[in-house]
Amino acid sequence: EGVGSTFNVYLRASEIDGVPEEVPPASTTLPQRAGRIMVMDDEEYILDLAVNMLGHFGYEVTGVRNGDELLRSYRCAVEDGKRFDVVIMDLTIPGGMGGREALVELKIVDPDVVAIVSSGYSNDPVMANFRAHGFRGVLMKPYTIEDLIQVTDEVSSPEGGATV
């Protein structure tokens, strides 16, 4: 007691021909996008993050917390002639309608809906075989903005279908 410890950590600097190597800053400059995306997630911080990230890149984004909200919002959008280009759905919503159940109902409203399933549960059969459950893409949590943009770009392409 009363005696501390001092640690010194020495790290070697990376050099090329005697000149310190400069590390370029990470780039998040992705081209601007256009389109309408709906994101469903029960975790507020994930929902807010996804809505803000997609909005930053030019998408018009609507966030909802469960399958019931998603169906109401999607129906209104279809009735107004403003359907969504992509829907990103959390697979599991505790105490509410999750992605798997909501997609069944959503396909009645819009058989051509482009849906991405998102989850942190990689061992769920829906994540492993998303196409068999009607999804066009899968997005594993946690994800980056690059993952989010990549999967939305891929499902929007004529070939469709993406795993990120």
Count the strands?
8
Radius of gyration: 21 Å
Instruction: Kindly report the spatial arrangement of strands forming the biggest sheet.
Output: 4-3-5-6-7-8
Succession of helices and strands = EEEHEHEHEHEHE
Describe the structure.
The structure is a single chain. By secondary structure, this protein is an alpha/beta fold. 32% of the residues lie in helices and 18% in strands. The protein contains 5 helices and 8 strands, in the order βββαβαβαβαβαβ. The strands form 2 sheets. A 6-stranded parallel sheet has the order 4-3-5-6-7-8, with helices on both faces. It has a two-stranded antiparallel ribbon with strand order 1-2. α3 (99-109) links the parallel β5 (86-90) and β6. The radius of gyration is 21 Å and the shape is elongated. The mean pLDDT is 88.
